[in-house]
Amino acid sequence: MTTDPGQIALVLLSGGLDSATMLAIANNEGFNCYAVSFDYGQRHRIELDAAQQVASQIGVVNHRKITLDLRAFGRSALTDDIKVPKDRDAPTMSESIPLTYVPARNTIFLSYALAMAEVIGSSDVFIGVNAVDYSGYPDCRPEYIRAFEQMANLATQAAVEGCKLTIHTPLMELSKTQIIERGLQLNVDYSLTHSCYDPDSSGKPCLRCDACLLRIRAFEQLGMIDPIAN
What is the pTM of this model? Predict the structure, then answer.
């Protein structure tokens, strides 16, 4: 991909493995990257510290944190008093939409990103959704992203005046192992990232939730130890 000098990308950065890799990809493609992270009342709020470290390591023009409270709605193990599923194998993870699904989270995040992108003059938004190793989240599917992009290009002054928005999903068809391989090629420091859904009070990952197990197994497939497991 050839990027015009000065072209701005807005990257949704959670602080996890996927979003760190995606930021590195956008940066490698020549975009001037702005990052946005969300403090939405998640139990694993420690990921925001990881996002800050990742943004510093890879390099961004600006990193902004948006605060909103999805605990007001609840009904997710990440925003409510619901136990995070643990010790599940891959088939069990994919049987149904898991309790860690946060209702409409990506729609909410992308809506904020759409507004911010228009303000900073960006027509390129990067989000680290994945349809291969994803845990059954409906807002991680290609058809969802296409639908949101179509809506976005009907919703803003910039799009109406000819500056169409593109939502980039470079990880969509990659396995977790392939994502890590790509990140290592781009010198992503995965020791800075945080993926755990249920860390302890010090921020130490549980190593048993779906998010932890997916990345641990992917590193093992590469003959490596996940740095979070050390």
Answer: 0.96
Query: Longest Cα pair distance anywhere in the chain, in angstroms?
Result: 52
Let me know if residue 135 belongs to a domain: yes
Q: How many CB atoms neighbour CB 96 within 10 A? A: 10
CATH code, domain carrying 41: 3.40.50.620
Residue 219: CB partners within 8 Å, gap ≥ 6? 180, 225, 226, 229
Read off the pLDDT of residues 84-124 as tens digits, 9 standing for 90 and up.
999 999 889 888 899 999 999 999 999 999 999 999 999 99
Dist. CA 2–CA 30, nearest whole Å: 8
**Helices 17-28 and 47-58: crossing angle, nearest 10°?**
20
Range of the domain at 187: 8-229
